[in-house]
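Query form — protein Tryptophan synthase alpha chain

QUESTION: What is the three-dimensional structure of this chain?
INPUT:
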Amino acid sequence: MTAVHARGVARIHAAFDRARDENRAAFIPFMTAGFPNQQDFPAVADALLAHADVMEVGIPYSDPLGDGPTVQRASEVALAGGTSTRRTLQLIADLRARHDTPIVVMTYVNPIYAVGPREFMRLAAEAGVDGLILPDLPPDQDLEIADLAAEHGMAVTFLIAPTSTPERVELVAGACTGFLYAVSVTGVTGAREGSALGEVPAMLALARQYARVPVAVGFGVKDAATARTVAQLADGVVVGSAFINAIQGGQDVGALAASIAQGCRKD
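ANSWER: The structure tokens for Tryptophan synthase alpha chain are given below.
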């Protein structure tokens, strides 16, 4: 099945398969919906999607505990500009009309419950969302959201960290249907100075003992060099804060995305 005709879980897995066949890690850029504003977000997303294997769109949220200052500020700006959860899904529907690339939504559980899980899943599926990344949902505590996503053909992704025990990794990996998101460092999102990826090899070795889906690494990847380091080990490379910083600095997001995508090639 090709990525063009697939949707949901199948479209995500097809994207990872294509990247693997081309001897590279899948490139997964992140952008907060409605940033830097609702008018300019589509152009920013288009620039990232031009190089992405999978696109991650964040729903702005007022209390994003897993995000660092850069993504927090982007959420604050987007919320102040009127980007709600429902508006985020409308923006994604507009992107889907132009792109076949898999689109996954990164969201905390509160925005889902604010809309209502069943209504949220219905709207997300209608918008063309292929999967959900759920950073604050323990897969052993609430299966309703994951089950509802599956009913609508959408994948779910949960996170592990260097501090995750083997038992925890086994549980989380078993619950993922899209890809497993491995956090490269203990802490919050954000580009970091120097290399903070020393714990990645051991974490990925553990993850691969249990994962039946691709394993992507995020947090701390900021440029082609750090992407290249991660790409030698992981199936996917997630980059977010670097693009928000680029927008704030007036840089060309498309050029940065092209450079990082090139860095995702394996040796």
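ADDITIONAL NOTE: Confidence is low (pLDDT under 50) at residues 1-5, 187-195.
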